[in-house]
Amino acid sequence: MGCWKQEGSNTWTFPTLVLCLYGFFNMMKPSEPFLTPYLTGPDKNLTIDEVTNQIFPVWTYSYLALLLPVFLITDYVRYKPVLLLQGISYIVTWLLLLFAHGVVAMQVMEFFYGMVTATEVAYYAYIYSVVSADRYQRVTSYCRSITLVAATVAAVLGQLLVSLADVSYFHLNAITLASVSLAFLCSFLLPMPQKSMFFHKKGVSETLPQPQKAVATLASNGPSSCQQQDEDCAAAGTGPAPQQQAEQPKPQNHMLRVLVQLSRDLRDCYSSRKLLYWSLWWALATAGFNQIVNYIQVLWDFRAPSHSSAVYNGAVEAIATFLSSVTSFMVAYVKVNWDLFGELALGIFSTIDAGSLFLMHFTTNIWSCYAGYLIFKASYMLLITIATFQIAVNLSMERYALMFGLNNFIALVIQTILTVVVVDSRGLGLNIVTQFLIYGSYFAVIAGIFLIRSICMLLSSKCKRKIARSWKEPLNLAEHEPKEQTVTGYTTRL
Fold first, then answer.
1. Where in the sequence does UniProt note compositional bias of the Polar residues kind (predicted)?
2. Residue 5 CB neighbour total at 10 angstroms
3. How crowded is residue 481: how many other Cβ atoms within 10 Å of its Cβ?
């Protein structure tokens, strides 16, 4: 049995299967859409203001504090220990949700949930260290699909249990605890990787897929530093050329050397204007999206109090996940020149996001709130898929992972500022309805930035075409003019 397991662990199927099981049970949380009704109900007996202004902000703060160190530690310890840490954090989170009481206890719970979200990076990064490069796309598809299926099934199951079987929120959380405990057990079956992206490389040929060994040419209006770094942009983390190594002192400490190389990679990648603007939208929009997802249940509970109204949070989350999957899938079949119209799409759909948030602010009807949330989430998922593709297509896998981590970190910094100023009781401590007015205005500003920039780009491209035509027209006229020939000093027309 042990020999079979060792042999199976060396193939791509065994770790992929175990990782998919791990992802499924981690996302199988039927209680999650009903967190706010559970906290404000008889089980915890917390007020809506305590939940909004004192408990939920802790998740943002802990996520921000943990993300950057966890991102680096994940690669250094080669992923599996971080997956085990995530499993432990999940279990502690739901044990506190089930058996702890009071504001402080729930704040501790939110801290551990911040640990859960900070360690999510290990889930997708792990697979790239145990499968060959030619299977990256297929395995990534499996892992992402299984989490979407699990989230949809969990939301539907939770809604059915609440609406039809009259199951209490406490028992929903007990089911979730059992599910995340199974995920924790699955993580022990994962083989320990022998390499990682940055700190434990085994050579570029093993790390990068063939199409990604040469970085695609970046936007023409960006600086050329990323394109001319002696193949530094061709494979992230390979280090400077031999001539550069002779000029610059090489750090003795391996970790310091890797960190220096990572900082160079980030500098080179953000020197591309195209990647810079897509990353700017990513950070701004993700900060707003996380804020909406974190507080949407509070708004629903305000519009239709759970103690006196039927709660359909699970059904709405299931539909939202399905619509997000459909819109993300559609991106693969849309033929658009994203270099020219990408920022216009960012502006238009950010406007739709802003409109849906304003709808949720001004309406008093819970069904309108539900509809606004569905539109908002589907629109964001469509755009984040486009942004991910536009960034990834120009970078090697290591550089994409770096930009992914830094963009999310910047998003968390922005989200933390929003939380401190708008939500936290030590800041303005605004009520939930006014918060959504602020969030709608926030997305309106994002839309304005990218609409203005896209219009300027389109006008600039039209001007360039007119100038090009004006240069061509005289040349075309010259071709039709009578030709001149010089004969013994005299010019004659033919």
1. 218-228
2. 12
3. 8
Q: Do 397 and 212 contact (CB within 8 A), yes or no?
A: yes
Q: How many CB atoms lie within 10 A of CB 168?
A: 15
Strand partners, 484: 493
Residues in the chain: 494
Residue 118's Cβ-side half-sphere holds a number of Cα atoms within 13 Å equal to 27
Q: How far apart are CA 292 and CA 298, in angstroms?
A: 10
Q: Per-residue pLDDT tens for 86-129?
A: 999 999 999 999 999 999 999 999 999 999 999 988 887 787 77
pLDDT, one tens digit per residue, over 256-291 is: 776 777 777 777 777 778 888 888 999 999 999 999
Q: Kindly tell me if the per-residue pLDDT of 234 is higher than 50.
A: no
User: How confident is the model at residue 255, as a pLDDT?
Assistant: 65
Residue 101: partners with Cβ closer than 8 Å, 6 or more residues away = 44
| Distance of alpha carbon 326 from alpha carbon 320, whole angstroms | 10
DSSP secondary-structure letter at 200? S
- Where do we find the tokens 């809506």? 48
490 phi, psi to nearest 5 deg: -110, 145
Q: What is the DSSP letter of 336?
A: -
Q: How many helices (H) and strands (E) does the chain have?
A: 19, 2
Exposed e or buried b per residue across 191-228, where buried means at least 16 C-beta atoms within 10 angstroms of its C-beta? bebeebbbbbbeebeebbeeebeebeebbeebeeebbe
Task: Say which DSSP state 46 is in.
Answer: -
Q: Residue 246 and residue 236: Cα distance in Å, rounded? A: 20
